[in-house]
TrEMBL record:
Cross-referenced InterPro entries: Centromere_CenpF_leu-rich_rpt
GO molecular function: dynein complex binding; protein homodimerization activity
Name listed for the protein in its UniProt record: Centromere protein Cenp-F leucine-rich repeat-containing domain-containing protein
Highest taxon of the lineage: Bacteria
Coiled-coil annotated residue ranges, if any: 24-114
Keywords: Coiled coil
Species in which this protein is naturally found: Bacillus salipaludis
Residues in Centromere protein Cenp-F leucine-rich repeat-containing domain copies: 20-146
Keyword Coiled coil appears in the UniProt entry: yes
């Protein structure tokens, strides 16, 4: 093999290695982009978790209100029992109380409806959170593939550099031999 051909091969190898370096940098940029997407998804998951906690707090508040209303109903029933001796003067008041009890029952029904609606919303949020987790798992898998590919590219680059150095040495030896 003549020296010109060796130099041409060496030049081709250097060009290939340069191209691989550019490819490696592009892949590293993609990895950084994927990492950013993963961080964004993690932020979304935390936001959804915060919303879930807020909804749980609202549900607890509604449960407290229902218990308070139930306590009021029990108090009203006690008053009705105590007022039975004064039926004549209290009949209008009893009618008023019956209206309030009905109103409270309607409010309880509204609260129950709202609670059911909150439960449905909570279920939707839980499903959304599961979808976000699934997306995060997919992104993690993609990131692992990219990292594996980068590792392979790095190993290939190291091998090419090793071969290039060996070819340089061989070329130097050949030049020295040809000069003798």
């Amino acid at each position: 093999m003549n020296a010109g051909k060796m130099e041409e091969m060496l030049s081709n190898l250097v060009t290939i290695v340069g191209g691989m370096n550019e490819t490696l940098q592009g892949v590293q940029g993609e990895v950084q982009g994927l990492k950013g997407e993963v961080q964004g998804l993690k932020g979304e998951v935390q936001g959804v978790q915060g919303e879930v906690q807020g909804l749980k707090g609202e549900v607890q508040g509604l449960k407290g209100e229902v218990q308070g209303v139930q306590g009021e109903v029990q108090g009203l029933k006690g008053e009705v029992q105590g007022l039975k001796a004064e039926v004549k003067g209290v009949q209008e008041e009893v009618q008023g109380l019956k209206g309030e009890v009905q109103s409270i029952k309607e409010e309880i029904q509204v609260v129950k409806t709202e609670q059911l609606s909150m439960s449905k919303k909570l279920q939707i949020i839980v499903e959304d959170q599961a979808a976000v987790r699934e997306n995060q798992t997919i992104m993690d898998g993609k990131l692992t593939k990219v990292i594996n590919k980068l590792t392979d590219i790095q190993a290939d680059q190291d091998l090419i550099w090793k071969k290039s150095v060996q070819n340089e040495r061989d070329l130097g030896k050949l030049k020295m031999h040809l000069q003798l």
